[in-house]
Amino acid sequence: MSETTVDLLIVGQGVAGSALAWQALRRHLKIHVISSPTEWPPSASQVGAGLITPITGSRLALAWRFAEFRSSALDLYRFVAHETKRDCWRNRPALRWLTIADEELWLSRCQKFPASANYLQPVEPDLVTSREHGIHGPAGSKPYVMPEAARVLMPVFLEATKRWLTETSCLSRAEFKPLDLIWDDVARHWKWRSMTARHIVFCTGYTPQLIRLPFLAAKGELMEIDLPGARQDYSWHGGIWMTPQEQDRWLVGATYDPLHLDQEITSEARLELSLGLAQWGIRNPKICSQHAAIRPALPGQMPAIGWSLPESILGRISEVTWPREKNCGVINGLGSRGALWAPLLADWLLDAMAGQPLPPEINLTRFLRS
Questions:
Q1: C-beta contacts of 264-271 below 8 A and 24+ residues apart
Q2: What is the DSSP letter of 367?
Q3: Can you say how many angstroms the Cα of residue 9 is from the centroid of all Cα atoms in its chain?
Q4: What span, in angstroms and rounded, lies between the C-alpha atoms of 99 and 105?
C-alpha cells in the first residue's frame, strides 16, 4: 500500500462499517476500511437476514424512531444501488400472527398510540394463506400485516460494498491488531502501516477483547429450506420467521442462545426451527443449509455510538495510547436490526464528528464508569 492520508479509517466491513463508508463517501470524506482476510468465523452481518420490521418482540412495541430509520435506510440502499448497479432493497410486507392475548395487547396499545395502528393491520387469513403449499398460521392466531416492512439482501449489500472498496483501493484485507496503531500526539493523527488517518472508527461487532461494552451477546442460528410453490409476497413472523429467497428457497430463523458464543451449528437449533415451521403446516422441510453467528446486543436492546473512547471502553493495551479528542469512535450493539439502524447511526456519528450532539438513547457515554 502506498503512503495514503484519509479522513476516516474504519475497522470492520459488516453492515455498520459498510454503511459508514458509504455515508462518508456522500460527504466527500476520504476513507479506508480494514476487513478480515478470512470468511470464518462469519459475522452477524454475513449471516443475518436483513429484515426490517416496525413491530417487534412479544410486547408488540413500535421500534424506536422507526420511520426516521427506515427513511434513512431506504435512501442509502438506493444510493448504493445507483453506484454499484446492485439492488439490495426489497419492499416486502411482513405477516405477524397474533393470538387472542396478542390482539388484546395490540388494541390497547393502539388506543394509547393511535399512529401505531398504521404499522400492524388485520387481514383476512384467506388473503395470505399459501394454499399451493398448505402454509397457514399457527392454530388459534390471526394474521396482521406490516405494510412498512422490508428486507435488505445482506450478501448483496456487503459484496457490492466490498467490490466498490476494492476497485477504489479503499480496502485492506488484514487482521486488525491494535498494536499496529500508532498515535502521533503532535500531528494529532493515527498511523496504521503506511496509512495516516485523522479518525478511526471501530465497527467490529462482538469483540469484547477490543471494545469493552456490557455485551448481551447471543448466538443465533438460521437455516435455508426448499419450499417450491409457496407464494413469496410476504415474510412470515410467528414464534420464528421465514422470508423468501430466490429459486423457491426460504430463510428461516432465528434461535437465541446466550450460553454458547460460537459459530457452530447445532441439531438443537435445527429441531427448534423445524418445530416452528410445523406450526405453519411445513413438516419435514428440505434443509439446504444452516448458519450461526453472534449477535452483538447491548442492555436495553439499543445500539451504542460515539467518540472520544476512554480506557473503560477500549481494551487495556499498554503499548497503545488512546487520545481523548474526537479521533476514536465506535458503532456497535446493532443486534438483529443492523440493516435498519446502520445507515442513520453512521450519519449521526459523522454529525457528531463535526460537533453535533448524539441522541442520549444511543450515546455510548451511558456506559461510562463514574
A1: 264/292, 265/221, 265/290, 265/291, 265/292, 266/221, 266/292, 269/221, 269/223, 270/221, 270/223
A2: G
A3: 20
A4: 10
* Digitized pLDDT (tens) for each residue of the chain, 370 residues in all: 457 899 999 999 999 999 999 999 999 999 999 999 887 778 899 999 999 999 988 889 899 999 999 999 999 999 999 999 999 999 999 999 999 999 999 999 999 988 889 999 998 877 776 655 667 888 888 899 999 999 999 999 999 999 999 999 999 999 998 888 888 888 889 999 989 999 999 999 999 888 888 899 999 999 999 998 888 888 999 889 999 998 899 999 999 999 999 999 999 999 999 999 999 889 889 999 999 999 999 999 999 999 876 555 555 544 455 555 668 899 999 999 999 999 999 999 999 998 999 999 999 888 765 3
| Class of the domain covering 4-46+155-214+299-367 | alpha beta
User: CA–CA distance from 350 to each of 21, 115, 298, 357, 358 (Å)?
Assistant: 11, 31, 22, 11, 10
Place of cell 447471543: 218
Model confidence, pTM: 0.93
φ/ψ of 211, rounded to 5, equals -110, 110
Q: Rounded to 5 degrees, what are φ and ψ at 335? A: 55, -130
The DSSP secondary structure of 298-366, one letter per residue, reads -GGG--EEEES--TTTB---TT-PPPSSTTEEEEE--TT-HHHHHHHHHHHHHHHHTTPPPPTTTBGGG
Amino acid at residue number 46:
Q
- Specify the 3-state DSSP secondary structure of 154: helix
Distance, in Å, from the CA atom of 156 to the CA atom of 272, rounded to the nearest integer, reads 28
Contacts (Cβ under 8 Å, ≥6 apart) of 141: 97, 98, 99, 102, 238
- Calculate the alpha carbon distances from 17 to 202, 207, 210, 218, 309 in Å: 8, 14, 16, 21, 17
Gap between the Cα atoms of 68 and 46, Å rounded: 25
- The residues spanned by each domain of the chain are 4-46+155-214+299-367
Q: What is the DSSP letter of 265?
A: -
